[in-house]
Amino acid sequence: MPPSLPALDRAHHLHPFTDFKALGEEGSRVITHAEGVYIHDAEGHRLLDGMAGLWCVNLGYGRRELVDAAAEQMLQLPYYNTFFKTTHPPAVGLAEKLCRLAPAHMNHVFFTGSGSEANDTVLRMVRRYWALRGKPWKQWVIGRENGYHGSTLAGMSLGGMALMHEQGGPGVPCITHVRQPYWFGEGRDQSPEAFGHACAAAIEERILALGEENVAAFIAEPVQGAGGAIMPPASYWPAVKAVLARYDILLVVDEVICGFGRLGEWFGSVLYDLAPDLMPIAKGLSSGYLPIGGVLVGDRVADTLIEEGGEFFHGFTYSGHPVCAAVALRNLEIMEEEGVVERVRDDLGPYLARRWSELADHPLVGEARSLGLMGALELVDPTTGGRFDRALAVGTLCRDISFACGLVMRSVGDTMIISPPLVITHEQIDELVSLAREALDETARRLSGDFAYTLYPQERYE
Ligand SMILES: *Cc1c(COP(=O)(O)O)cnc(C)c1O
Questions:
Q1: Section 15-37 average pLDDT
Q2: Residue 258 near ligand 1, beta carbon < 6 Å
Q3: Does ligand 1 lie within 6 Å of residue 116's CB atom?
Q4: Distance from the CA of 105 to the center of ligand 1, in angstroms?
Q5: Which of 271, 309, 326, 434 is deepest in the core (most CB within 10 A)?
């Protein structure tokens, strides 16, 4: 018999964000096909994809229009670059569409292949901008602990993921991190309102400690995604805006997850009225059908780069790749035609909020929160109301049980998160919530030594 796919996978494939050895022992699940909000594995299981792949398959799986857009573009012009005074229709069309959807002061876009490359581009642009403005010493970028901005060296450095920094060695210099506005995790001794103000004040303190003349930019996600679907207290963003307005500092809003309807607006920056100078984008830009990212550039930075910059020595072979751009453009057209963003804002988001919040009555759940089509459950020990011992890895247990129940729900520590496709129906939201409850019930049973499910791919928790 030829070796199985899991065996070949184990033999040759190093997976991202994976303990290679542990995966080798446990084996990976082979996903073979998908439609709508459901994925299927090689053993015949169907799972509701509560994560839209990795926060990206916003229009759901199996969209013929996106497949056709790719096929037509591949025949027409599968590749050409945009380096040497050349361009092509898909890149132009997508640039125009993006600038029309973005806040009014953002009229230019630089294309990349991913969100990480978008954040590398951000760093290059921020430095270039201040150099052109005659302040080359203005180099410090303030990010946030537990923020995520990608996995290249610059993305990792801008992000505040402690485990990545521990493994990464020295990152890019002149990047520092301040506390995150994670009320459930770090602020419950204060009101959310007071905690939001305290987190904004921490930014100002850092600016003053570094010297305001030396601070180039502040970077943040509107709502932290990979950090655990962390919606900041209502007081946070207005207070941050007030701080940044007092000093001459660029605002970079990482829209890689929040952009394209996730929160019920085209961008998180619109929801929170942020008026950013730079907005990295990726993921939902193409509904994940092909890799593409970019940086939307506000007029203040664009005017300087264009008028005073000369040649900007930066770009990627696949910047504005015609096939990726054609698919992204079609993706955005479909979102407009079907009113996807408005439906998330007016219908699906409020419906998910109502159904998801019902899970707060579960003994394992300390908080159930959602915004648009992003949600989180904070798991707590029912006997104490506090966090579980980290070593118990209860979040990982709950995630594996959730998969066994037929729901893709992800864990970040003991926070369970969802981010389903934006085309999910009410009935499918009902199914998602009842599967999540089933997973919570089984997690609670196992924690008390009892169990009803066999976990995939093999039982690991006796
Ligand atoms: C996923 C993500 C990135 C990195 O995007 P890649 O395409 O994986 O490089 C950057 N920022 C945020 C907020 C993300 O969620």
A1: 93
A2: no
A3: yes
A4: 24
A5: 326
Q: Is 47 left (phi over 0), alpha (psi -120 to 50) or beta?
A: beta
Residue 450 pLDDT greater than 70, yes or no: no
Tell whether 302 and 413 lie within a shared domain: no
Q: Looking at beta carbons, which pairs linking 364-372 to residues 24 or more positions away fall under 8 Å? A: 364/398, 364/440, 364/443, 364/444, 365/440, 366/184, 367/184, 369/184, 369/229, 369/231, 370/229, 371/223, 371/231, 371/263, 371/264, 372/261, 372/262, 372/263, 372/264, 372/344, 372/345
Evaluate: CB of 223 within 6 angstroms of ligand 1: no
Collapsing DSSP states into helix, strand and coil, what is residue 343? Answer: helix
Assess whether 333 and 382 both reside in one domain: no
Instruction: Clarify whether residues 36 and 96 are in a common domain.
Output: no
Pick from 323, 286, 260, 294: which is nearest to 69 by CA? 323
Give residue-wise pLDDT tens across range 93-128.
999 999 999 999 999 999 999 999 999 999 999 999
Helix (H, G, I), strand (E, B) or coil at 216: strand
Q: Check if 362 has its Cβ closer than 6 Å to any atom of ligand 1.
A: no
Domain containing 16 equals: 5-62+339-461
Q: Does 306 lie in the same domain as 454?
A: no
Residue 226 Cβ contacting ligand 1 at under 6 Å: yes
- Residues 291 and 176 both lie in one domain: yes
Residue 435's domain is classified under what CATH number? Answer: 3.90.1150.10
Of 310, 337, 364, the residue that ends a domain is: 337
Q: Please identify, by atom number, the ligand 1 atom nearest to the C-alpha of residue 226.
A: 15
Q: Is the CB of 355 under 6 A from ligand 1?
A: no
